[in-house]
Design a protein that fits this description.
With 411 residues, the protein is of the alpha+beta class. The chain has twelve helices and ten strands. The strands form three sheets. Strands 1-4-5-8 form a four-stranded mixed sheet. Strand 6 and strand 7 form a beta hairpin.
Length: 411
């Protein structure tokens, strides 16, 4: 029995046994195409179709939205989503494609939407019938999110939206978008309001989505243009002018510090299942050569690998500590630092993998001679997006310094 299982409540223990039984019997099949390393790199409909089917089946089995009320399409359980997450990861199941909906849109609607809107939209979000994206960043409003200029003008019970969002992951597949808009130009923070917007049905009728090609060759990012898009006021979350406060709920959950856990599991494909794991560097070094000898024989390299493993384990143990109230001097410190620490560990791990591979790191995915299918060079390039998304590392350090340590605000 794992340490996690030993600490289960009776409800969690019963649910864990159910999850293990269902996952052991469930076969999601073999994808006909290569799967990406994470949901935000999905670029083909074939990839989405396979992953969407898996999420739908997991939802029908009760492993997604476990802690949400039954009226919202959830399981009505308490503190059981983390059990499902642990068991899906343990079973090596694919990741869930609707990650932006599950991790940001769902908790934001749970806390701020009218009951009718939650009951209408959340079941389709949980099942992945509807794919969601996030409309926050703009060309002139990235780190300074409160500077968004995409504007919504009120006309009776309707809103007319005009503007430009960018770095919008999954917008090329999305049915719905969570959208932070300016509704009053006279106030920076109090002039923001928050909406959910049906974008797929409005393509060519007020919405244009253009893919952005990354250095990896993937098209997970997009830019989205709004040209007199008309939506109803019933798509607004919370009060007019409260958008900044609603956005904080979104950001808190995006950074892993919110009370509603994101359903998640670990791998994109068999080839990429260990990519990003510091322990995988051991076998990588054993199979790589330097001057005719195993790279694992290099004592400096062995020390670097062990340092990465120590950092990775330290982060995992920090997450365990966060669950023990008496060990947390500030309840938000560990959750808020988790995104910063893990994103940089992942980046440094993939950078070390590139160093281990040497000249072979130039061999990319689909090259039959590439070690680990070329997934490590891809992970290295993708890692820069991870340290920027959900708040760049510099922003995260400011948040920790100012809000947790009480340091003076940076200029």
């Amino acid at each position: 029995m794992s340490q996690q299982a030993k600490k289960d409540t009776p409800e969690q223990a019963e649910f864990r046994a159910y999850c293990r039984d269902w996952l052991s019997q469930h076969d999601e099949g073999t994808p006909s195409v290569r799967l990406p390393q994470s949901a935000i790199e999905i670029m083909h409909s074939e990839q989405l179709s396979f992953l969407r089917k898996w999420q739908s089946e997991a939802y029908e089995a009760g492993l997604i939205g476990c802690d949400y009320p039954i009226a919202e399409g959830g399981g009505g359980r308490k503190d059981c989503q983390m059990v499902a997450n642990q068991e899906m990861a343990r079973a090596g199941k694919p990741f869930l494609p609707n990650i932006l909906g599950l991790g940001m849109a769902a908790p934001t609607m749970h806390f701020h939407a009218q009951a009718a809107l939650k009951e209408r939209l959340l079941p389709g979000l949980f099942s992945c019938k509807d794919v969601w994206c996030q409309g926050f960043s703009e060309p002139g409003a990235g780190s300074d999110l409160a500077n968004v200029q995409t504007f919504a003008e009120r006309k009776g019970d309707k809103w007319i939206i005009n503007g430009h969002k960018v770095w919008t992951s999954l917008a090329h597949f999305a049915d719905w978008m969570i959208l932070l808009l300016r509704t009053d130009k006279s106030s920076k923070y109090d002039g923001l309001s928050y909406f959910v917007v049906p974008i797929k049905s409005a393509l060519g009728k007020g919405v244009t989505v253009r893919p952005l090609i990354k250095i990896t060759g993937e098209t997970g990012f997009n830019e989205v243009f709004f040209d007199n898009l008309e939506i109803g006021d019933d798509y607004r979350l919370d009060e007019i002018g409260k958008g900044w406060q609603v956005a904080q709920t979104t950001l808190l959950h995006e950074r892993g510090a919110g009370p509603m856990l994101t359903p998640s599991s670990g791998r994109g494909s068999a080839k990429s299942s260990a990519i990003g794991d510091a322990y995988a560097l051991i076998n990588l070094a054993k199979n790589a050569t330097r001057d005719g000898e195993s790279a694992a024989d290099d004592p400096l390299l062995r020390d670097q690998i062990m340092q990465m493993i120590i950092r990775q384990e330290g982060s995992k143990q920090g997450a365990r500590r966060a669950k023990v109230e008496g060990l947390c001097e500030h309840p938000m410190r560990i959750p808020l630092q988790a995104k910063l620490v893990m994103s940089e560990i992942r980046q440094d791990t993939s950078a070390l993998a590139i160093d281990i591979l040497g000249a072979q790191s130039t061999l990319y995915i689909n090259d039959e001679n590439a070690p680990a299918g070329g997934e490590w060079p891809l992970a290295y390039m993708n890692s820069y997006g991870i340290t920027i998304a959900a708040g760049a590392s510099e922003i995260q350090r400011n948040i920790l310094g100012e809000r947790i340590l009480g340091m003076a605000k940076s200029k």
